[in-house]
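To the structural biology subgroup,

Please find below the input and predicted structure for DUF4178 domain-containing protein, which we are adding to the shared reference set this quarter. The sequence is reproduced verbatim from the submission form. If anyone notices a discrepancy with their own records, reply to this email rather than editing the shared folder directly, so we keep one authoritative version.
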Amino acid sequence: MAESATQRHYRAPCPGCGAPVEFRSAQSTHAVCGYCQSTVVRSGDVLTRLGKMAELFDDHSPLQTMASGRITLDGKEVPFTLVGRLQYKGDAGVWTEWTAFLEDGTLATLGEDNGAYVFSRPIDPGRELPEAARWSIGTTTAINGKPYSVAYAGQAQLVSAQGELPKLPPLGQPFGMVELRSSDGEVLSIDYGHTPPRVERGRAVLLEDLQLQGLKDESAKDEKGRQFNCPHCGAPVQVQLASTKSITCGSCSSIIDLGSGVGGELRSAMQDEPVRPIIPLGAKGPLQGVHWQVVGFQHRMGVAPGDDEHFGWSEYLLYNQKRGFAFLVDSEEGWSMVRPTTGAPQMAATGRTATYLGTTYQLKYSYNAETTYVLGEFYWPVERGQKTFNRDFAAARGLLSMEQSASEITWSAGDRLASDTVVQAFGLGDKKDVLQRDDPGPFVAAKGAGCGTVILIVVVLLIVLIIMSNCSGSSGSSYRSSGGSFGGYSSGGSHK
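Predicted structure (tokenized):
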């Protein structure tokens, strides 16, 4: 366990049951007794019982209290130990914040949200912050002279806790939560459950980079999923992931809302005109060095503002226990692999470019998107008819996409994939022709290529096409690539 030689631990009996309750950090004011679940507050050398904490919900996390690791801070590797856990519920779902005890006695936070991790530390914002309700999605503000974009503004509440903790907001009482993100990958959270608001700044981390020891046994992830009967047709429905907020019935394809849990009131919505995914749900395979499983599928339609021509694409939701979720996108422009970004790209005032992690992306398409069909499990409350406004950017083979709803802006970044890569990853050799798309070219034009070269290539292509057309002997026939997985024609506005 990571600790400093000068750090004095404090231990006292729980006021509820007499079991020992330990405080390792002088910054810790609260703790939850591991025996009777009493919430206790420390005042000097006196512990006072505030009440009983609700049971933790099973989030299937590989982390647990007393796991230890190392994090690089200011160029130095610093040991830490996870001493507490806070579980929150908000407008967009549930997430966990682990309290990390550093060797200097201070506390940090390892945030865990659907398999993605952010390590952050408290900061002084350097100015008085506005009320939570005054933050607007998409606006830009400066904290300590650095620009941030408002990615989320909504309500959250503490639902459970464990171990040694900083000051807690009232259990079950909603408070404001705001997330700011920068173009270099930083995330800054403002927690209005404290007075003054608690501000933390951090970056995304990978579990393997934290050199963690004392994780849960790998067998913990093999626990049986929850099961219930479909509220529409009565068929049994199995839930595999603890983070699932929506699921579809395998028998009638109804979308079932799990926002209140399996034991709560289940609401369902029928889906007609079923769409069949080419890659089956449950398929497993390696992509970009990570072993993924297909857990969800959604088909979406888009239309550019002022246009009446729609286009479609498909998104496969992929899951890995330590990497969280990613999206395998199948559009008329080919296959791509994208993941939500931690930071928020900086978009130009014109909206024509966006810069992220030092790379500038050019706008390709702007359009309104709508979800038309879903299958499987999702970590957000997906429903048919959900609408967003999207912008897609590209740089060489890199991709950047923005989706904006009423309460949140989400950015995703990734790369194009060759069709053969998808075929090999999921062992779908028998579907190779069906999965074939217009793959990314084998080269990218070098900077400074002359206009004459480009014109020469175009002229040669035109001559070849004319010759082929004359040889075919047909008039008025045309060729169209299978493009998107369902043959939908697109004028070029394909997603991502």
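Summary notes: The CA atoms of residues 69 and 467 lie 66 Å apart. Residues 451-472 form the longest helix (22 residues).

Regards,
Lab coordination
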